[in-house]
Amino acid sequence: MRRKKDLLKYHALAWALVLTLTGCSSANSDTSQTSKTAQEAKLPAAVGGDLSYGLATSPDTLDPHRSGLAVAVRVIRTIYDSLVTQLPDGSIKPWLAAEWSVSPDGLSYTFKLRKDVKFQDGTPFNAEAVKFNYDRILDPTTKAANSAAFLKPYKSAEVIDEYTVKLNLETPSRAFLGNLSQALLGIVSPAAAQKDGDQFGKHPVGTGPFSFVKWEENAAIQVKRNPDYNWAPEIVENKGKSYLDQITFKIIPEEATRIGSVQSKQVLAVETVPPQNVVSLKSDPNVQVLQVNTVGLPYTLFFNHRRPPWNDVKARQAVQATIDVDAIVKTLYLGTYPRAWSPLSPGIFGYDSTLENGIKPDTAKANKLLDELGWVKGADGIREKEGKKLTLHYVDGTPNREKRNDIAVIVQQQLKQVGIAVEVEITKDTANVIYTKGTYDLYGNSQVNSDPTALYSFYHTSDPKGRPSIPGLSDPQLDKWLEQGLVENDDKKRAEIYKQVQHTIIDHASIIPVYVFPYTVAALKMVKGLKFDNLGYPLFNDTYLQK
Questions:
Q1: Which residue in 166, 29, 1 sits closest to 97, CA to CA?
Q2: Residue 81 in contact with residue 231, Cβ under 8 Å?
Q3: DSSP string, 83-94
């Protein structure tokens, strides 16, 4: 097991924003059993109760292998465990796996599993279950989403014995072990997944600290304490069953309603606090505001390089020089969201801070570039060429998550200044518009991730048989760097590779980075022990309600 000593030094800083974890110890298949007496001695004064937790949007599914939404992970992490966990310093620690070894060529990982774990449906957790899970993600009929990218370059699994499994890779990968800690690679019950098929996401079963109760569409999701749970990872203090009886995730898309519900004490905690409410809530004597920056790929506007004229670098640079990102971030987020400058967020390994403050608004430059491309302003101020108006089709999803629809409106206003007409399409069906039809010129997205290999699925040339990447880039040099970044063992060389990747993407105006998302929770002060993992997702193992 290799510690990534240089990896993500920021995690230690980020963790300072979170409630401090103390008293952690490693899991072990033979020695981690906590006696009932010792466990009860650690219980907080108040045990039990229902934590109501307001979500900003509805999860797409509770099948971790098929989900593509961060909001789903908030619920998914309560139901499922992973083989390993990643600590704030980047080190990988045991969870469902007690220990592991890596082959000298880096092409196989052999895991010895805990022997005391069972799924919430009573079926045993073992090597066959691990093999089933990862093979399920590879199976095209699963229609895996982000989990497929996290699992790469997994090839196959061999069951050595009941509690030993060997995972084989196509190529070595620096990110593979860390990715196994991701919630979207959580271990599902093979019996339940086979029984419910496509409907498994509505009837989820894992090994986690909470088990699924019910899902009222667009209203609420309820999970209850798993009474047998006794195998939590080092990242939390409480290794046994949860202090809470249950958690009710209430789906409250309307911002004012969500904030009002916690102020009126109808809900005990709510996520995604709007910027305009952060200051006032911090001064509310009944409320606490918890905030942690997420890491990975910041919220970014991606050009579709497959569609003219945006396949021309000058056209993209004209847009890059026109959009005033500082004005957007300050206007919409009131200083509560940091501006993004790179394809990566600060704190992730390889982030290049020299890109900061590098792009400034310059409408004169934008006009000059568009003139050079032959786009001439018409009577209405919109540029034309060969009888066609210069139009950019901007697609975003609904509901208005993190004020992203408002970004579209401001971009529309700003680009009009240089003669670019922006058509804004707000749709519930972004997956179809982006990945199937491809009828967009600009689209915003982000991804929570702990390693810069996340750039691969966004910027490497797409597999013709797979899902197309959002920007549709096909750059041989960029491909080479992204492939090297997957396997390079020297951290200095690896950081330099990702520095080149970031600069190339920005220099070619392939994207417009906008903001780094700070996950913000407002909770009544009776809610204690709510913590977050190193990616910014909430952890409820230690949470209790003070009466």
A1: 29
A2: yes
A3: SEEE-TTS-EEE
The rounded distance, in Å, linking the Cα atoms of 487 and 500 is: 16
Instruction: Output the six-digit token pair for 227.
Output: 């009474």
316 and 184 assigned to the same domain: no
From 273, 242, 243, select the one nearest 257 (Cα to Cα): 273
Residue 272 CA to residue 311 CA, distance in Å, equals 35
H helix or E strand, kind and range, residue 133: helix 127-138
The answer to whether residues 211 and 192 touch, using CB atoms and an 8 Å cutoff, is no
CA distances from 372 to 18, 331, 369, 385, 440 (A): 51, 32, 5, 12, 24
Residues 300 and 277 in one domain: no
pLDDT score recorded for residue 43: 62
**Angle at Cα 531 formed by Cα 530 and Cα 537, nearest 5°?**
115
One domain, residues 524 and 483: no
On whether residue 3 sits in a domain, the answer given is no
Question: What letter would DSSP give residue 201?
Answer: G
pLDDT tens for residues 513-539?
999 999 999 999 999 999 999 899 999
* Residue recorded with tokens 């920021």: 10
Q: Provide the 10 A C-beta neighbour count for residue 126.
A: 21
510 shares a domain with 524: no
**214 within some domain:** yes
Q: How far, in Å, are 144, 266, 437, 471 from residue 434 at the CA level? A: 17, 38, 6, 10
In a domain, 505, yes or no: yes
**Residue 495 contacts residue 477 (beta carbons within 8 Å):** no
Query: Do the domain assignments include residue 286?
Result: yes
Please report, rounded to a whole number, the percentage of residues in the chain having pLDDT higher than 70: 92
- Count the domains in the chain: 2
| Residues 182 and 330 both lie in one domain | no
pTM: 0.79
Residue 470 belongs to domain spanning: 296-516
Reported as type and span, the H/E element at residue 405 is helix 404-416
Cβ atoms of 152 and 67 within 8 Å: the answer is no
Q: How far apart are CA 32 and CA 30, in angstroms?
A: 6
